[in-house]
Amino acid sequence: MKNNMELFDTFLNVYGNTIEKCRKKEIIKQEKITRKMFIELFTSIIIIFIVLFFGTSIEKYYKYSIIILLIIMTVLLLLLDIKNLRKTKKDSSYIVNNLIYDALLSFFTHDNYDFNANVQMSVDDFNKMNLFNTNYLKYSGNYFQTIQYENKKIVMSDVTLYDTVERIKTDSYYLSSTNTKYTINYHYNEYIDIFKGLYYETTINRENNEFIYMIPNNIKDMFIRKNIYHYIYYNGHKIELENLNFSERYSVFSLDEIKSRYILSITLMEKINKIDKLISNKKYFVFKSDGRVGIFIDGLQIEKIFNQKININKKISRDYLYKFFISLKNILDMALLLEDFKLYD
Question: What pLDDT sits at residue 78?
Answer without folding.
Answer: 93
